[in-house]
Amino acid sequence: MEKAMLLLADGSVYEGFSVGAKGTAIGETVFTTGMTGYQETLTDPSYYGQIVTQTFPLIGNYGTNSFDSESPRCHLSGYVIREWCETPSNFRCENNLDTFLKEKGVIGLYGIDTRSLTRKLRESGVMNGMITTEPIADKKAALEKIREYYIKDAVKNVSSPEIRTFKAQGETKYRVVLFDYGYKRNIERELLRRGCEVTIVPYNTTAEQIKEIAPDGIMLSNGPGDPKDNIEAILNLRETMKLKIPTFGICLGHQLLALANGGSTRKLKYGHRGANQPVLDLEMGRTFVTSQNHGYAVDAESIKDSVGVVNCKNANDGTCEGIRYLKFPAFTVQFHPEVCCGPLDTAFLFDKFIEMMDKGGK
Amino acid sequence: MPLRHDIKKVLVIGSGPIVIGQAAEFDYAGTQACRALKEEGLEVVLLNSNPATIMTDKTMADEIYIEPLTLDVVKRVIEIEKPDSVLSTLGGQTGLTLSMQLAEEGFLDAHGVKLLGAVPETIHKAEDRQAFKDTMEAIGEPCIPSKVVTTIEDAVAFANEDGIGYPLIIRPAFTLGGTGGGIVNNEEELRDIAENGLRLSPITQILVEKCISGWKEIEFEVIRDRKGNVITVCSMENFDPVGVHTGDSIVIAPAVTLSDKEYQMLRTAAINIISELKIEGGCNCQFALHPGSFEYAVIEVNPRVSRSSALASKATGYPIAKVATRIAIGYTLDEIINAVTGKTYACFEPAIDYVVIKFPKWPFEKFVYAKRTLGTQMMATGEVMSIGTSFEQAMMKAVRGAELGLSTMNLKKLEDKTTDYIREKLHDCDDERVFVVYEALKRGIRPEEIHEVTKIDNWFLYKLLNLIKMERSLADGELTDEKYLTAKKLGFLDETIEQLSGQKIKNPRFASYKMVDTCAAEFAAETPYFYSTYDEENEAEEFIKEHDTGKKKVVVFGSGPIRIGQGIEFDYCSVHCVWALKEEGYEAVICNNNPETVSTDFDTGDRLYFDPLTKEDVRSILETEKPYGVVVQFGGQTAIKLAKYLDELGANILGTSADSVDAAEDRERFDELLEQCEIPRPQGHTVFTAEEAVKAANELGYPVLMRPSYVLGGQNMIIAHSDKDIEEYMEVIIGHNNMENPVLIDKYLMGVEVEVDAICDGKDYLIPGIMEHVERAGVHSGDSISIYPAQNLSKRIRETIVDYTGRLAKALNVIGLVNVQYVVYNDTVYVIEVNPRSSRTVPYISKVTGVPMVDMATKIMLGSSLKDLGYGTGLYPEGDYVAVKVPVFSFEKLHDVDTHLGPEMKSTGEVLGIAHTFEEALLKGLTAAGYKMKRSGSVMLTVRDSDKQEIIKVADKFNTLGFDLYATPGTANTLNKNMIPTNVVPKQKGGKNNVITLLDSGKIDYIISTSEKGREPAKDSVKIRRKAVERSIASLTSLDTANAVADSLLLGKTVKDVELVDITKI
């Protein structure tokens, strides 16, 4: 058992053992409370630049497989868990966690009290940290580096520059452009399943280019980092929305569209990451259990009455979870209706998007 | 919209006596419901026949009826109390079924009463097999191929259909815990079980289902409100695959072998089901999942709170029953604050950061001849739950907490068996299978091979293998601090570590505690609910510091899993002790490991430690809490067993000292004490070996009573009539005990048994009441019908009993409660047993006399004197009512168990009948216990020679009532000679017409059967009694019970003719 450790910006150290790749990485340390779906978590591009800890203690129980990844790569900086399962059991299992992490180059740490780490993050807010399998010779210097760290060019790093088009399952009903801010595969799958031909375009695709493609709908994907860093994407969106093409935004896509419409975003103390966040849909009068992964939120007050309606909020802390726009056919949500991992309860939003296209944005 | 304005007064129906399949979890649910209703300012009317419950406490409801749970009684209560609503979903199957009948008959509508929780259409869709199948099909949820049938021939025809075949599972409709069902492998078995199931089903309907045993069994607890908001509280995975009843399965929460795709598929299915059924409240969905694909099937849906929901509540901290109650009265999930965090709402799905294991507690220690094979019919009487940061740790805690005498997974009796035997034994699916699996792994049998046989998922097997690896590692090489810590994290006790390593632990550690907070630490929670592990942070310690009240702390030890002999009564006592402590200005801390109980509700005490009640676990709790005192006298034998150890640790045991406990238990010291008090007891000896036992018995003269010392519920207690009996039983006793403690042999005196509970302060004593048993000594007190106040004792005898009790209490220096059992034989009072602790009868006596015994005892332990408490001393004046406690058995759930009553306790629960006269109270009690009290028909009699004289009187009464009498030749001969016309029926072997065929004919309404010896399933008398159980024939195995039943019938009344009593008004 080789040692590994996590050094946090406040100087505290969690010592444990190494799992997966060896090396050193710095990232923003966050926790997720999802109890299943570690493979989806590991491959979720929204975790770019972050060291992710799982609050559930037993990870890797059912191994990993070639079906459940949400992107081809692991974008996170490090992975921290209490215990991993050497002998996973599931009919689709191909590898154990260690092998998977090694293949994907993820530095992992296990054997620490993840609850203690979670409580620390909860109290002090997300904190930078360094995960390493090597001895730290100069702690002071390391801490300096850790404190200096910030997540840079997150979207640019996870978005693919290629334009790709995927055929719809069955008959093509609509053509949808999916902005890749670091999209999760299941967004694509949900659209394909509903008869959409999906064209994935880079984060910086312009309104002109969209106009050329002339899609029936626009899907704004999830993605990592501080939404305000994406000035180019925001400016492009400001133009794109003038095309009045039915638009559905998720997570970062939701935040970017809000920013493009004069809204503002702020960083949450420790974010919402997990598969159990309750969202109140104010228009439906219902509460839904949702999958979430975000460290920033749109300020509900920043959405002018003339621009849109904040129609969803988090039932626990009241933060903005969704906006319906008034001047063009668009709605966005902070949570993840495409889930993976998490509850499928809000998958109907994709149907709502289809209905919007049925109406042609009218 | 919060509370509905049209609800002001609610009737809550409880679940009745504790039986297998319906236990303390419904007291927990009912208590939460009552509290939630009262918090809303609603008036609560409560009906439950079970007096040992907390929900029937005066603080829980405004009007309380401890009356038989029959349709007639519920109607009368509604007429008297005029509630505007009935809550149907918190009283188990019993409460639900009654509510449905009321609704379907139109009674509720006619009386303007609303049904809360579930509507009849919902219940019908969930519980009627065909309707359920149709509903599932309509929403595209797959069911197992099956057919609802009402005849045996239809069942056989289905079996012969294409693609069906054997094995098949038979599930009778509307029966508790799957009663009467089973797996069948051929037509003969199918015919047999189908017949039984059809008879047991109140609507003569069974489901014949394709057997999918070997699939994973997964459960979801779901909760939904009237707006359609729905969440899953918890997922659970059974260690044992489909085929073993979930109540008999080891269960882990959350599900561990499912990927997110499988998990979400089933979670979505559960949500679709509850939404389609439109349940407003809690619901349990059980699924079978193919281990090699995404194929799944819905097994069952329970549209109410259940055993699983109690488990899910305790496993997550999410109070399902409380939330379900609020939903029933109009709230929605987004309006109900999560009491655990105080910050989140009830629509927030719990996330947990530990694993939970439930381990069943079976009654096989008691029923040594019972068939132990696990199947679709539940047999466990109770369960323990454990929480750990790893599966291994939780498993080790569960096993040691189940009080099986084990501190590891090693079952001693398997050690010397051959590997071939172990390999073969893997095929037996019984209560010991997990230990056989462990032994098999230890012998080097590969997990894959074990999986092939048992279908237990490899994940579990490899985890067990980790424990074996640790055992080996401990036995090999130096015990480093690192290795020690790893072993602790896997759940090993210090004692085991030292034993396996042969080395002293250099730096022993105490456990640290983590909080159960519903949210995996995402929010700062305020729940004082903890479990132990071995990490650096101790959240309990932090909590205590942050919430320093300056109050003195007292730790109350609970009673562990429900088992025969130690039931819900002790939870009642523990909870009352906690309440009294709080009232007296102390901080009350609970330690218990039973998820079904009120004591383990996170807001019962000031803090809850959900951990095993074993020495080392308890020591760590004391280390963290550093309490002023500890209480052991309310947690049954489980807690009292800790007394000596706690004393050695230097803990301040409040109340009766450990030394006094020992003085009452240790035969020699007890004899000295009696001598000193000049109180006679039946002559007796203590022995260690079979030879000594035979010698002693011959000296005393047969019959003799034998029992191991330090036991509860008369476990392994028997009456021996011959040397051969003694030899047989000594073997059984030695097989179940490590023989640290001797076996007691006493002269058996067949007199009237009398029992008292007393409260003592060291100087004075108060006896709330004297109870007399209907059955003479020889039938365990827990199985006897008990009457308060005693009806047939002379003033002198009563005074002697009061005097003796006082002398004993003083001599033992009892501070708190003491229970004394006497036998009155030839007009002399003998002491049989003294227990310086709370007893099974405390809740019922407290309720009928109005003397709050536990509260008083607690106050006395804290220093009050009896005189200050205002209830006087000596014998408390008798009330106007007679209360009769009648035992309830679960024989139909247990195969091959003899129903003959004896010194070993067999009942699982009890009911109470309260009325102005003994006869009326008895009638109520018997009715509540399930006797149909038919006043005409036929009686079958077959009694042992020693009962032949006495049976005449009893038979005469049945004859007078107009019953046709049938008897086996010997018994018939006696009766006919005494001018009681009786038909002779040959015993089993005698040709075409015999007792068995007569019982099968359905003609017989009562059977009176006694025999010299029983137990062995092969004996004729046992077979006859088993047949009676199978045919649901009232089976009376003591002439005293039979006589009481006859007297009650002679009264010529039914419960309809007897006034209902609101016990809050007496």
Describe this structure in words.
The complex is a heterodimer of chains A (362) and B (1066). Chain A has 362 residues and is α/β, with parallel strands linked by helices. Chain A folds into 2 domains: 3-151, Carbamoyl-phosphate synthase small subunit, N-terminal domain (Glucose Oxidase, domain 1, 3-Layer(bba) Sandwich); 155-358, 3-Layer(aba) Sandwich (Rossmann fold), CATH 3.40.50. Chain A has helices at 38-42, 97-104, 114-124, 139-148, 154-158, 185-193, 207-213, 231-240, 252-260, 348-358, and strands spanning 3-8, 13-20, 24-32, 50-54, 58-59, 78-80, 83-84, 107-110, 127-132, 164-166, 174-180, 196-202, 217-220, 247-250, 265-281, 286-298, 308-314, 320-325, 330-333. The model of chain B has no long low-confidence stretch (mean pLDDT 92).
Furnish the topology, listing elements before pairings:
The complex is a heterodimer of chains A (362) and B (1066).
Chain A: E1 3-8, E2 13-20, E3 24-32, H1 38-42, E4 50-54, E5 58-59, E6 78-80, E7 83-84, H2 97-104, E8 107-110, H3 114-124, E9 127-132, H4 139-148, H5 154-158, E10 164-166, E11 174-180, H6 185-193, E12 196-202, H7 207-213, E13 217-220, H8 231-240, E14 247-250, H9 252-260, E15 265-281, E16 286-298, E17 308-314, E18 320-325, E19 330-333, H10 348-358
Parallel strand pairs in A: 3-4, 4-6, 5-7, 6-8, 11-12, 11-13, 13-14, 14-19
Antiparallel strand pairs in A: 1-2, 1-9, 2-8, 3-9, 10-12, 15-16, 15-17, 17-18, 18-19
Helix pairs in contact in A: 7-8, 8-9
Chain B: E1 9-13, H1 25-39, E2 43-47, E3 63-65, H2 71-81, E4 85-87, H3 92-104, H4 107-110, E5 114-116, H5 120-127, H6 129-138, E6 146-149, H7 152-159, E7 168-172, E8 182-184, H8 187-200, E9 206-210, E10 216-224, E11 230-238, E12 251-253, H9 260-277, E13 281-289, E14 296-302, H10 307-316, H11 320-328, E15 355-361, E16 382-388, H12 391-401, H13 412-415, H14 419-425, H15 433-442, H16 447-454, H17 458-475, H18 481-489, H19 494-501, E17 512-515, E18 529-533, H20 539-546, E19 553-557, H21 568-583, E20 587-592, E21 607-610, H22 615-625, E22 629-631, H23 636-640, H24 643-649, H25 658-665, H26 667-677, E23 684-687, H27 690-700, E24 704-708, E25 718-720, H28 723-736, E26 743-747, E27 752-761, E28 765-776, E29 786-788, H29 795-811, E30 815-825, E31 828-835, H30 842-849, H31 853-861, H32 866-869, E32 874-875, E33 882-888, E34 909-915, H33 918-928, E35 938-942, H34 948-960, E36 964-967, H35 969-977, E37 983-984, H36 995-1000, E38 1004-1009, H37 1020-1030, E39 1034-1036, H38 1039-1050
Parallel strand pairs in B: 1-2, 1-4, 2-3, 4-5, 18-21, 19-20, 19-22, 20-21, 28-32, 35-36, 35-38, 36-37, 38-39
Antiparallel strand pairs in B: 6-9, 7-8, 7-9, 10-11, 10-13, 11-12, 12-15, 13-14, 15-16, 17-18, 23-26, 24-25, 24-26, 27-28, 27-30, 28-29, 29-33, 30-31, 33-34
Helix pairs in contact in B: 1-11, 5-6, 7-8, 14-15, 15-17, 16-17, 21-31, 24-25, 25-26, 26-29, 27-28, 33-38, 34-35, 34-38
